[in-house]
From TrEMBL:
Name recorded for this polypeptide: 2-iminobutanoate/2-iminopropanoate deaminase
Record GO terms (molecular function): deaminase activity
GO cellular component: cytosol
InterPro entries noted in UniProt: RidA, RutC-like_sf, YjgF/YER057c/UK114
Family (UniProt): Belongs to the RutC family.
Lineage, highest ranks first: Bacteria, Pseudomonadati, Bacteroidota, Cytophagia, Cytophagales
Domain of life: Bacteria
Gene3D superfamilies assigned to the protein according to its UniProt record, in alphabetical order: RutC-like
Amino acid sequence: MPKQIIFSDKAPAPIGPYSQAVKVNGTVYVSGQIAAELAKSGDIKAETGMVMQNIGHILGAAGLGFQNVVKASIFLRDMNDFTAVNEIYGGFFTKDPPARETVQVARLPKDVNVEISVIAVE
């Protein structure tokens, strides 16, 4: 079962020993994406939009799009941001959205407010 490393230069490079995404048997596992440059702005919608754009670039590098996403995980610093994040996130899944969970966590890398990872299939 060979694995293929997926990389897009349009999305931020990993900040640790992991890949942006890995493809195995037609399934693409996209690592959690953040928007560190927007975290201090206080604009959760802009931060979420950038995260989703980064995911889109990585999916594109794998030859896929948001219609291929079957599972998403959202990690929030503050669950009070749920509605705003959901509004932006939902704009990327206008038909047949994937399965998902959203959890509040104590802290995220680079002190961002939101991190999202997805799993997509061919």
